[in-house]
Amino acid sequence: xxxxxxxxxxxxxxxxxxxxxPNTSVPLNIFEPRYxxxxxxxxxxxxxxxxxxxxxxxxxxxxPPDLHKIGCLGKITSFKETDNRTFLIExxxxxxxxxxxxxxxxxxxxxxxxxxxxxENDLKNQKEEIKFNDLELIFKDLKSLFEKxxxxxxxKALEKQNLDETINALAMASPFSLEEKQILLEAKNLDVRKxxxxxxxxxxxxxxxxxxxxx
Length: 215
Hints:
It is a single chain. About 30% of the residues lie in helices and about 25% in strands. By secondary structure, the protein is an alpha+beta fold. The longest helix is centred in the last third of the chain and has 14 residues, at about 190-205. It is globular.
């Protein structure tokens, strides 16, 4: 997608316990009526929706939760309606955005004016100056963390992906906290994200890596 084609107003899906990263694809099961409406409208328009984390878990449905400032625009690349009228979609992360204002509307879901200017590099197919073997130590320690937490990752398949796809996929799938994943999402570029992963991993060193620090 070209930056000139990015929408100024997008529907927002404030999904708890979930963060979408650029250059990653995830399946989603949509069943709430308001988000069924949102997907229907999006499919008729441009197939774009914004994923963002609520700042807190608000159990009062009458009060919309406050949101983080940074989310990720996703494009629906696969769509299927089930027999019980839920939607199964595949969402591909495109570019991060910063929310500006909520737009008043008669929709059941929320619309926001957003800005992509800080994150336009997400759209470029540029190769960052990071070599895969530079990340071997990080991946080794991350692999240990995944295994300790019972996560299963196809590491051979990851090595065949582009570096940005690999780092973003690991950041999204990692057993880090949501706050830590939000920090990774907001990292300026791939190099900063790689360093943030290393910093976060170091905080797990004592309880995960057999009480030894990362070397």
